[in-house]
Design goal:
Layout (H helix, E strand, L loop, with lengths): L2 H7 L6 H42 L1 H6 L3 E2 L6 E2 L2 H24 L10 H20 L7 H11 L1 H13 L3 H9 L4 H12 L1 H17 L2 H6 L17 H8 L6 H34 L1
Helix pairs in contact: 2-13, 4-6, 4-7, 4-10, 5-6, 7-10, 8-9, 10-13, 12-13
Length: 285
């Protein structure tokens, strides 16, 4: 194809509406490239900042070490307690928040700042846990799970409601006409038809739970213990970074960036798993 024939096949905007559409497409393209560029820059920065500490400490000692004593004379940088606390906290919040989110519509909570959740948890939930279970302190993994389960509700509800409203009404009407009850129609017709949107809402909730710092810091106790009990005072990956970054230096500061790299990797893995699951579900449908 020569240059003249190629240019003949290109359609230039002629009307003001065509020019507006072309300009908007160009703006959206630039925004998409900017988003991709930001993700790439963040990834490169996290790798460059986090890998040196992992190299100095040792990958297995860092990921599988059970002791964190970053300011000791002989410092230890094992983050396994932080990883397990984050995993258990996120999993527990998901197990509580997802069923409640699918059965209710609590979208007003989305406007409440994280620090307010943490403050309410510290003033109300933590004393209640201590009194109910006879513990010296209620600042523990259980309190963090409860607070996180409430915080992820808006993300799950808003996306799930949108997905459920997009289900063609003929599906539900046909199910009811065949004699199914409202409950049977909801769980066997509506929810399966909206599973992609519901899954997206769940992943958004998981992302908020695993990335939350302020509220968790106020109710979890912030001790670098292994989470062998829901009543144990624990530290999450996010709170480990937040509570030490202001005064950290040298290898300690590099180790905190390494924790951020691990957290970033967790979030990327969750997104990849979601895409695989959704694409597999779409092919099956």
């Amino acid at each position: 194809m020569n240059k003249k024939s190629y240019l003949a096949g290109v359609r230039l905007p002629r009307t003001p509406a065509d020019w507006l559409e072309a300009m908007m497409n160009f703006i959206f393209f630039l925004c998409g490239m900017l988003a991709v560029g930001c993700v790439v820059l963040i990834t490169v920065y996290m790798v460059l900042s986090g890998v040196p500490a992992i190299h100095k400490i040792g990958l297995f000692r860092f990921l599988l070490g059970t002791e964190w004593a970053s300011t000791a004379a002989d410092p230890k940088f094992g983050i396994l307690p932080f990883i397990l606390s984050s995993v258990y906290g996120t999993l527990g919040a998901t197990l509580i928040g997802v069923p409640i989110g699918l059965l209710t519509a609590i979208e007003l909570l989305s406007g409440i700042p994280s620090v307010v959740f943490g403050l309410l948890g510290m003033q109300v939930l933590v004393p209640a846990v201590a009194k109910t279970f006879g513990k010296a302190s209620g600042a523990c993994l259980l309190s963090a799970i409860v607070v996180l389960s409430i915080m992820i509700l808006p993300s799950i509800v808003s996306v799930s409601v949108t997905a459920l409203n997009a289900v063609p009404p003929e599906y539900e009407q046909g199910s009811l006409a065949l004699g199914a009850t409202d409950t049977e129609t909801w769980f066997k017709i509506s929810v399966p038809a909206a599973k992609s949107g519901i899954a997206a809402g769940i992943v958004l909730g998981i992302g908020r739970a695993i990335g939350e710092a302020m509220a968790v810091m106020m109710v979890a106790g912030n001790s670098p213990n292994m989470p062998d009990s829901v009543f144990r005072s624990v530290t999450f990956l996010t709170t480990a970074i937040a509570k030490e970054m202001s005064y950290a230096g040298g290898l300690q500061r590099q180790a905190l960036f390494s924790i951020a790299l691990v957290l970033f990797g967790f979030i990327m893995i969750i997104n990849v798993v979601l895409n695989v699951v959704l694409k597999g579900g779409d092919r099956d449908a």
